[in-house]
Amino acid sequence: MLKFVKGNLENIDGVQIYPMISLLIFFIFFVVLFWWVFTAKKAHIKEVSNIPLNDDIINENEPLL
After folding, report:
1. CA–CA separation, 24 vs 41, rounded Å?
2. How big is the CA angle at 32 (ends 26 and 38), to the nearest 5 degrees?
3. Any idea what DSSP says for residue 63?
4. H/E element holding 44?
5. How far is the C-alpha of 19 from the C-alpha of 26, rounded, in Å?
6. What percent of the chain is predicted at pLDDT more than 70?
7. Which helix (H) or strand (E) holds 19?
8. Model confidence pLDDT, tens digit, residues 1-20
9. What mean pLDDT, rounded, does the chain reach?
10. How far apart are CA 46 and CA 33, in angstroms?
11. Confidence of residue 60 (pLDDT cuts 50, 70, 90)
């Protein structure tokens, strides 16, 4: 199976750039996420973390069970 995939990929010109692009996208995503986590306001993080615990707020669009 690997020989089949490797054989097809060797015939594509410029295929060696795709792993580098994937690594770059992966790295940029996690750097931005890391930056957002450390610069986010503590009040916002606390409010969002308490959303699952707020039973007193009922969404009007959802039917009551």
Report:
1. 28
2. 135
3. P
4. helix 42-49
5. 10
6. 80
7. helix 17-39
8. 667 777 777 788 888 898 89
9. 82
10. 18
11. low
CA–CA gap between residue 38 and residue 45 (Å, rounded): 11
pTM summary value:
0.55
Q: Which amino acid is at 43?
A: A
pLDDT(64) > 60: no
- Contact between 64 and 58 under an 8 Å Cβ cutoff? The reply is yes
Residue with tokens 């795709």: 18
Output the pLDDT for position 26: 98
Start-to-end CA distance of the chain, whole Å, equals 51
DSSP state of 15: T
Query: Distance (Å, rounded) from C-alpha 39 to C-alpha 17?
Result: 33
Return the structure tokens found at 21: 């692009």
